[in-house]
TrEMBL record:
Cited Pfam families: DUF6789 (PF20587)
The protein's name: DUF1440 domain-containing protein
TM annotation in the entry: 6-29, 60-77, 89-109, 121-138
Native organism: Natranaerobius trueperi
Keywords from the UniProt entry: Membrane, Transmembrane, Transmembrane helix
Domain of life: Bacteria
């Protein structure tokens, strides 16, 4: 794909689907109670989703935001060499995860002021999957 902005957005979307599969699996198995879509819900509604419609819109918002991060990744990558793209994707995702956690705590977003170990660890794994998948997919579709 020639258009790297589109390729990076699509790569972000694909990566976010995998990230959300991990997140939903951990949530449904009872490992944690804070879904990634809850972050989008807090930002869009100011509270956790209270209906299926709220949940669906929050999930779509989360997927869009994560897809947009793919474009940011491309801009970040454009300034660096093409070597070790998987490591760079992982680093990008972990820095983003760490930054978003820091902002949510610093600003005191409702329901996101404190995180359990299980939630934090699960989201670290989800972010790692996102970064690796983002980098791999972007490299593959821009060849």
């Amino acid at each position: 794909m020639r258009d790297k902005t589109t390729a990076s957005f699509i790569s972000g979307l694909i990566a976010s689907v995998f990230m959300n599969i991990i997140d939903w699996t951990a949530f449904l198995l009872g490992y944690h109670k804070e879904r990634l879509l809850d972050w989008a819900a807090i930002i869009v509604y100011g509270y956790l989703p209270t209906s299926i419609a709220h949940t669906v819109l929050a999930q779509l918002g989360q997927l869009f935001f994560s897809s947009f991060l793919g474009i940011i990744y491309y801009l970040f990558l454009a300034k660096l060499s093409d070597e070790n793209h998987i490591l760079k994707g992982w680093i990008f995702a972990i820095i983003t995860w760490f930054g978003l956690y820091g902002i949510s705590i610093s600003v005191g977003l409702p329901e996101l002021k404190a995180h359990t170990f299980n939630t934090t660890f699960s989201h670290f794994i989800s972010a790692s999957i996102y970064g690796v998948t983002l980098a791999h997919t972007f490299k593959k579709i821009t060849r």
